[in-house]
Every structure is written in structure tokens, then in C-alpha cells.
Amino acid sequence: MSISDIIEQFILDSIGNEKYISISRNQLAEYFNCVPSQINYVLSTRFSLDRGFITISKRGGGGYIIVQRVPQSKIKYIKTLLSSGIEDLNEARAQQILKKLEYDEVITKRESAIIAAALSDKALLVPDGIKADVRANILKNILLELLKNQFE
After folding, report:
1. Using one digit for the tens of pLDDT, what is the confidence trace for 39-60?
2. Nearest to residue 104, comparing CAs of 143, 146, 71?
3. Any long-range contacts for 10-15 (C-beta under 8 Å, 24+ apart)?
4. Under a CB-based contact definition with an 8 Å cutoff, are residues 86 and 41 in contact?
5. For the chain, what is the HEC assignment?
6. I need a labelling partner for 147 at 20 to 30 A (CA). Which of 17, 32, 82, 107 fits?
7. Half-sphere CA count of 135, side-chain side, radius 13 A
8. Which residues of 66-79 are buried (b: 16+ CB within 10 A; e: fewer)?
């Protein structure tokens, strides 16, 4: 398990069922014996809107970070993803989005695996320069279909 995984799990455990937590970036870095930029990396990659979180960074006075869970219905979550601009989507970020959709029971584990296979680098036999855009378009269309099916 990497230090990023450990920090992520610590933050998730700290949030538990709460709506948000407030943590000190420097204290967290000291606790994990890492540089504060490692904390920033974890927050920006593992606690983003597409994973169901908002992070607010306050500088000064020691600086602290608020990590807030975004409570959303399935429909609202899909709309948020679509409006947040899924562009230039690499395979890792696509996997994060799918895991969040699965966690929130918007899609099943099986559907997530099927979609992940369709969005994988191995499946997208297009030039590398356009692969991320093609992946983003495929995921957008899948999300739109999910949204349409919510009303049937």
C-alpha cells in the first residue's frame, strides 16, 4: 500500500459518517512523515468532485483543509459529472469515476467492470493524442443513457 493510499484511508476513516472534517495539512504531513505537497496530491486526486468530495483549503493561521462529502441523489450526481466537464479523461480518472458511481449504487459492480473494459487503453484503438477525448465522449454518452433510464 502506498503512502497516498494510507493517507486516503486515514481521511476516509476520519470522515466516517460525518458531512465534513477539518484537518491541518502540516499536522497531517507530520503524522505521516511526508511533505505537505503529498497531502495536497492526495486531496486533489482522491477527494475531488467526481469522487463525491469538495476540498476547501484555508491558508494562514497554520492552514487547514476542509474535506466535505457531497450528498447527492443519483440523478444529481450524474448531472454534476456531466456539467463539471468530463474532458481529456485518462484511464485512471475514468476508473475513479466508475468506482464512485459503483459506491453510490448508481451502477452495479458488473456494469462498472464492463464500462471500465470499454474505456481501457487496450480497448481504445485510436491514436494516443485523441484517446482521452474519445474516452470522455464514451463516458458522457453512458452517463446520459443512465440519466435517461432513471426516468423509465
Report:
1. 989 998 888 776 778 788 777 6
2. 71
3. 11/42, 11/43, 11/46, 11/47, 11/67, 15/67, 15/69
4. no
5. CCHHHHHHHHHHHHHCCCCEEEECHHHHHHHCCCCHHHHHHHHHHHCCHHHCEEEEEECCCCCEEEEEECCCCHHHHHHHHHHCCCCCCCHHHHHHHHHHHHHCCCCCHHHHHHHHHHHCCCCCCCCHHHHHHHHHHHHHHHHHHHHHHCCC
6. 17
7. 29
8. ebbbeeeeeeebbe
Q: Select from 46, 45, 38 the least CA-distant residue to 12.
A: 46
Place of cell 446520459: 144
Instruction: Find all residues with CB under 8 Å of 55, minimum gap 6, and list them.
Output: 43, 44, 47, 48, 65, 66, 67, 68
Beta bridge partners of 21: 67
Which residue shows C-alpha cell 475514468?
94
Written as one letter, the residue type at 55 is T
pLDDT per residue as tens digits for the range 11-27: 999 998 888 899 888 89
